[in-house]
Amino acid sequence: MKILVAEDDATSRLVLGATLRSLGHDVTTVEDGAAALEAWRREEFGLVISDWLMPLLDGPGLCRHVRAERRPHYTYVILLTSLEGKGNYLSGIEAGADDFITKPLDREVLAARLSVAERIIGLHEALRIEATRDRLTGLLNRGAILDELQRELHRAVREDGPTATMLLDIDHFKRVNDTYGHLVGDVVLREIARRLQLTLRPYDRVGRFGGEEFVVLITHGDAEQSALIGERIRAAVAAEPVEVPGGQPVSVTVSIGVAIGQGSPDDADRLLAAADLALYRAKANGRDRVEV
Ligand code: GH3
Ligand code: MG
Ligand code: MG
Ligand code: MG
Ligand code: MG
User: Where is the GGDEF domain (predicted)?
Assistant: First the structure.
C-alpha cells in the first residue's frame, strides 16, 4: 500500500516508517498535518496514518480536510494517539477517522490494523471501478466520462490551453442489429471500443456515452491535432471488418464530431452540444467522416 505518515516526533516517525516498510509498504513520512495535506493533494495515498497532536495541523484537522475534499479514491485514515479517554475517541470518529492505534506501537497490532485497512480500501476500489465502467465495452460509462470532462475543463482553464471533446456515432448501426442480430451488434460495439483504446494516447479518455455513441476527450487537443486524431480513429474503424465468432465479418464505419473548448469550466454542456452539431454535419455530409 502507499502510506502517508504524519508524525512530528522524529523518533516515532522513524520507527513507524521503518516498521511499515519492513511490512512491505511504500511509505512517505512528513512532520506535520499541513505537510501531509499537501502531499495527499499531490499524490494518491490509500492510507494516511497520522499522529494526533502536531504543531500546524493536528490529526483530526487533517482528517477533516481529507474527508471534505472529494477525491475519486477512498483514503483510509488511522489516528495515532497516546491520549486516553472517550472524548478523544469520539472527536476522532467525528473528524472522519476510520481507526485508531495507541502508542507505544505494537508491530502485530499495526499489521492487523493494516489488513483491515487493505480490505476496506480494496472493497472501495472494486466498487468505484464497478460504478465507473460500462459493462459491455469496459470503457468509462456516461457518468464517469462526464466527470472526466469536468476535470479536463478545470485542467484546461488552469493551464490556459485548449481541450477537445469528440462524439462518435456508429453509422447505420441499426442495420447491423437488424441484419446480424443484437449479439453480433454487441461484438461490434466491443471491438469498436477496443480500436478506440488502441488508437488513443494513454492520457486521452474514452467512454461510452450511450447506445452506439462514444465520447473521446483529447487532452491539450486543438482543432488541427484533434482532426488528425479523429481521422486516425475513423480510419482504424473502417480499415478492417469486425470479426464475429461463427459468423461473417461485419463492416462498419463511424461519424465523428469534434468541438474545441477553452476558457470556462462551465463549458461541458456547450462543448457536448457543439460536438453533437459537428456530428450531425458528419452524418449529413455522408457519414464515415470527421467534422470539427
Ligand atoms: P446513424 O448512421 O444515423 O447513426 O444510424 P443508426 O442506425 O446508427 O442510428 P440509430 O440511432 O437509429 O440506431 C442506433 C441503434 O443502436 C439502435 C439500437 O438498437 C442500437 N443499440 C444501442 N445500444 C445497443 C447495444 O447495447 N447493443 C446493440 N447490439 N445495439 C445497440
Ligand atoms: Mg488520497
Ligand atoms: Mg505529536
Ligand atoms: Mg446514435
Ligand atoms: Mg448510429
Answer: 161-292
